[in-house]
Design goal:
The complex is a heterodimer.
Chain A: E1 2-4, H1 6-9, H2 12-25, H3 33-38, E2 47-59, E3 64-77, E4 83-97, E5 105-118, E6 121-128, E7 163-172, E8 175-182, E9 202-203, E10 217-225, E11 229-239, E12 244-250, E13 253-259, E14 262-274, E15 277-288, E16 301-312, E17 315-326, H4 338-350, E18 357-369, E19 374-383, E20 388-398, E21 403-413, H5 419-427, E22 429-437
Parallel strand pairs in A: 1-5, 9-13
Antiparallel strand pairs in A: 2-3, 2-22, 3-4, 4-5, 5-6, 6-7, 7-8, 8-10, 10-11, 11-14, 12-13, 14-15, 15-16, 16-17, 17-18, 18-19, 19-20, 20-21, 21-22
Chain B: H1 2-12, H2 18-24, H3 28-37, E1 43-53, E2 59-71, E3 76-85, E4 93-99, E5 105-110, E6 115-119, E7 146-156, E8 159-168, H4 171-177, E9 181-187, E10 193-199, E11 205-218, E12 223-233, E13 239-249, H5 260-263
Antiparallel strand pairs in B: 1-2, 1-13, 2-3, 3-4, 4-5, 5-6, 7-8, 8-9, 9-10, 10-11, 11-12, 12-13
Classes of the chains: A mainly beta, B mainly beta.
């Protein structure tokens, strides 16, 4: 039976709007040889259709944790006078899954948007994924679209979830000013769905904001692209993508619910090259509003990532220090009722606020061999404060441009009272995957 | 009387027309400089094909759209490359500010990254998109990074060429560009490069590059582009071919193209 992911497929209406706009944006003729390569000329096909078919098996050698077959169809109009449109539809068949038990088949639109261009303005409206931040993979300023921390995937990009966003960019080289409007809240997917709560509490309905305009989220970013130096300053005022856990009692039954809270995040980043080293940094200061809901609200925090990368021929390595300072940190204990204590603990590990200072390090060595038909990498993250470790070895062999075979593992290690400890039990596995692109 | 003297000088070998005499007096470094200068075109738009051939003869084909434009009196060339096909590299783009006298500035846009990323420019030895071409082959070398020696003259593709030995000034430049020595063959007629032999860091003959076609794009300033370049790695039997499918001389390309906006477009 096909399950339509309601949140994801509610976008179908929007899809129709965007599809209607396809004919608007693709109207027009190429202006140059370069543009003509991206545009449709007289008598040429107005659209391109690409995609992939992917089969994956994840297992910890005791239990098969996830078997999926997935198809992606990507329809993109050629660049027109006013822009272009893009749709990616996914059909995912869960043949076996320890997490997605109820999601046997899933049909959704991963991305569907229109790009409109008017002089120096670029407007992208639709279901999309926004990535902010110049650090590699660990971006404290990246707060627009949510993450799925429970996914079984060889591809880190699959952890990014889409949301409906309007993005307006004003391009005045070397400056780019970006404005974001997020009318619909969408939360991170958490690795705690199977957690047994104290006091026999059960999951209750979420308290998430509705679509009133004054409950929207907004972002503003100013980028500077200089020849030798890139940088940006950003400001986000909106709902934090990680929801807070709270509890309530309804008819003598304790319930745990997820609730969204607003936060303001001031961010900055930069990248440059110093000799043979690429140098990147990213900083974010978060000030959550603590007057909206009664459940846990994290403290203000300062996050910082500093990274170096270096290449030797076809081998490269990225090393980053990732730190966090929780402002006014208090090690609180002794809650009234077991459920309150349990939720406080869960909230503090989900928001990574178990310590006043946390120090982490990420390393990602990678090499490309045999005319880049073989790629080997090891993504790792070690949190020295909480003693957590994430390892993701990956090897990809491209049999041809169209066919890839991948093998690897996603391995989380941590104590039972840590986020990686929760993930360790759920999604630690080795995987094998075949992907055919077209 | 003057005509008689001139004829006598020609016959005796003491007289040559002005431009030929100028070429005769060129130092090896000047030959190399002119070889670089003749490929500096004010602006180009092109559609290209990169064919990557493995040791078993299996081909992978990439289509690329490119733009170039000269800035700073020709000392900087800005380049935008965008991969059009196949699907696994479609949308990947490179933006390069190629400077004559300093390390280049480079950015890459990959659809999977979803953002533009600044990349290290000094590491030119690595393979360009899996081909036998290196990033060094795709950018203008810094003249002072090498010493030059004229070995003699040879004929390549029926064209008389200077045979130049090009050696990195130090091991750092060697490592960055991936070769310990290069023998290049530069046309005496128009200073375009017609052939190059690369020696790896162990001194072994590693790659042979052949320029199988040249187009004079700017007929006024006598500027050229290479129509078909073939490079073969004789140690592992792999080969790559970069060809111009279509090219247009356009010195009036908008500066806007050489920004992150167009890289991500």
């Amino acid at each position: 039976m096909i399950k339509l992911n309601i949140f994801r497929f509610i976008t179908f209406g929007r899809f129709l709007i965007v599809f209607f706009l396809l004919n608007v944006v693709r109207d027009g003729k190429a202006q140059s040889l370069f543009d003509s390569a991206l545009s449709a000329n007289e008598g040429e096909q107005k659209y391109t259709l690409n995609g992939f078919v992917r089969s994956s098996v994840f297992s910890d050698f005791k239990e098969t944790k996830n078997i999926t077959a997935e198809t992606s169809l990507k329809l993109e109009t050629k660049e027109g006078r006013f822009g272009k449109a893009y749709v990616e539809a996914r059909y995912k068949n869960y043949i076996n899954s320890t997490i997605q038990q109820e999601e046997r088949d899933e049909l959704y639109l991963r991305e569907v948007y229109c790009d409109l261009r008017f002089n120096k303005f670029d407007l992208r409206i639709g279901q999309q994924i926004i990535v902010w931040g110049r650090a590699d993979g660990f971006n404290p300023t990246n707060n627009i679209t949510p993450m799925d921390m429970t996914i079984f995937s060889s591809d880190e990009d699959e952890k990014r979830l889409e949301n409906f966003v309007s993005r307006l960019r004003y391009n005045a080289h070397p400056f780019v000013v970006e404005m974001i409007w997020v009318p619909v809240y969408r939360a991170n997917k958490l690795p705690i769905e199977g957690v047994q709560f104290a006091d026999n509490a059960v999951w209750g309905s979420d308290i998430f904001p509705d679509t009133k305009t004054d409950l929207s989220s907004y972002g503003l970013k100013a980028d500077l692209f200089k020849a030798s130096f890139d940088a940006s300053f950003s400001f986000y005022n909106g709902y934090y993508k990680m929801p807070s856990l709270g509890s309530r009692t309804i008819a003598d039954q304790k319930e745990v619910f997820r609730s969204a809270f607003r936060t303001r995040v001031l961010g900055a980043d930069f990248s440059t090259v110093a000799g043979k080293y690429g140098l990147r940094g990213e900083f974010a200061y978060s000030l959550p509003d603590d007057d909206e809901i009664e459940s846990f609200i994290p403290n203000d925090q300062l996050e910082y990532t500093i990274g170096l990368d270096r290449e030797w021929g076809n081998f490269n390595i990225i090393a980053q220090y990732i730190g966090k300072h929780v402002i006014d940190y208090k090690n609180v204990s002794g809650f009234e009722g077991k459920i309150h204590g349990q939720l406080h603990f869960l909230n503090s590990i989900l928001f990574a606020q178990t310590d006043e200072f946390t120090h982490s390090m990420s390393l990602r060595p990678a090499i490309k061999l045999k005319q880049e038909t073989i790629e080997i990498e090891l993504l790792s993250l070690a949190n020295f404060t909480t003693e957590e470790l994430y390892l993701k070895p990956l090897i990809e062999y491209k049999i041809s441009d169209d066919i890839s075979v991948l093998g690897g593992a996603q391995l989380y290690y941590g104590s039972d009272d840590s986020l990686f400890g929760l993930l360790e039990k759920k999604i630690n596995s080795a995987f094998a995957e075949v992907k055919i692109s077209f | 009387m003057n005509q008689i003297i001139t004829l006598a000088l020609v016959l005796s070998g003491f007289y040559m027309p002005g431009h030929l005499r100028a070429q005769q007096q060129l130092t090896p470094r000047e030959i190399q400089k002119r070889s670089l200068d003749v490929t500096k075109v004010d602006g180009t738009e092109s559609l290209n094909t990169l064919i990557i051939i493995n040791e078993k003869g299996r081909e992978r084909v990439r289509k690329v759209a490119s733009l170039t434009k000269l800035y700073d009196n020709g000392n900087t060339e800005k380049k935008l490359m965008r991969f059009i096909s196949p699907a696994d590299v479609k949308g990947t783009g490179f933006l390069t500010y190629d400077y004559d006298e300093e390390d280049d500035d480079k950015w890459i846009y990959m659809p999977a990254l979803r953002k533009t990323r600044r990349i290290i420019s000094s590491e030119n030895a690595k393979s360009f998109m899996g081909s036998e071409f290196s990033y060094a082959d795709m950018s203008m070398p810094t003249l002072d990074d090498y010493t030059y020696k004229l070995l003699g003259e040879k004929t390549v593709f029926d064209e008389k060429c200077y045979e130049l030995e090009v050696v990195p000034v130090n091991s750092e430049v060697e490592d960055e560009n991936g070769f310990s020595k290069k023998i290049t063959y530069v046309s005496k007629a128009n200073f375009t490069q017609r052939k190059a032999i690369y020696f790896n860091l162990y001194g072994e003959k590693e790659k042979v590059m052949l320029v199988k076609g040249v187009i004079e794009l700017d007929k006024e300033k006598h500027k050229y582009r290479y129509k078909l370049i073939e490079i073969e790695n004789i140690l592992n039997g792999r080969k790559s071919i970069f060809s111009l499918d279509e090219i247009k001389f356009n010195p009036n390309i908008s500066d806007e193209y050489f920004t992150s906006r167009y890289l991500e477009k």
